[in-house]
What we know:
alpha/beta, Rossmann fold, nine-stranded mixed beta sheet, 12 helices, chaperone, hydrolase
Amino acid sequence: MAFQTAPRQPVPVSVLTGFLGAGKTTLLNRLLKAPDMAGTAVIINEFGDVPIDHLLVEQASDGIIELSDGCLCCTVRGELVDTLADLADRVQTGRLAPLARVVVETTGLADPCPVLQSIMAHPALLAAYRLDGVIAVADALNGEATLDAHEEAVRQIAVADRIVLTKSDLASAEAVASLRARLARLNPGAPILDAAGGKADVGSLFDCGLYDPSTKSVDVERWLRAVAADDHHHHDHDHANHGHRHDHRFETFSLTLDRPIAFAAVANFLDLLRSTHGEGLLRMKGIVETVEEPERPLVIHGVRRFLHPPVRLAAWPDGRRGTRLVLITKDVPQDYVRRLFDAFAGRPGIDTPDRTALEDNPLAIGGYRP
């Protein structure tokens, strides 16, 4: 394989998702006017669906529109993978200027997970792009009703790294407070940024702190903030979810270990978890201290059954070692996951098989559901 002498750094990709009519386009138009957004490519489904209110200076070519400030808009032609690969090819061959970032806007109630899988699991895209984060837009006027009516809307909030609250200036204080509380229960780690209050700006929405193997300035705490490391038993099955028929099916919880673990044990745990409950494993993020290379943390990132190739960082960014995994799940028995992890981590509970027994018989642990 031939390597370029000066390979470009992977371009960060942000996925913008949210309810129908929640204000994604308004947010996008406002962001695109910011000087910090220069060099951004926005991928949308159809230009007609998203009214870009920039002065369009040039129809560059073949489904790509160049905006007056140097940003680009392009439509999804076929699969998203094809569009991203085409953009990367154009940059590589000098037909487009290098990109600072890419924003993929999903349609209304789309499930963001397949988009994340495309970016994380497609060999052609791994070298060109890295996932920066998921931005979910929630509407203070209709958000609660949408969450009640559409499980997809709940999923969007659950997997987000940033939540943008729109129309809070049009809704009652009670409605805003109720929605905020519900969003925080669904996703304990994502900051909720008020668009009407000017909080949802470029600096707060992008650079979500996901790992960047090219630099040592990795903000692990920011990335893994979904659950405090000492919170071993976070549940969303509390009284506040009564009446919200989808919410209780989604959970965010963390797995922690304060000593090194063998790489094979982590790999086997992840393999077994993905094979038994892959569809319900909406997102998984983590940093692992391995026995083999305790000085260099291993960064894990997965969506459903897809696992991004694990990356070794040069050093522990925050000096704090150990293993911290954050899981966002739907219909996955948390107790099963915890017992599975404990078995592979060498601390099986009473009447629970140890790692060796599990590797011989993966279904030996209770709670497995095909």
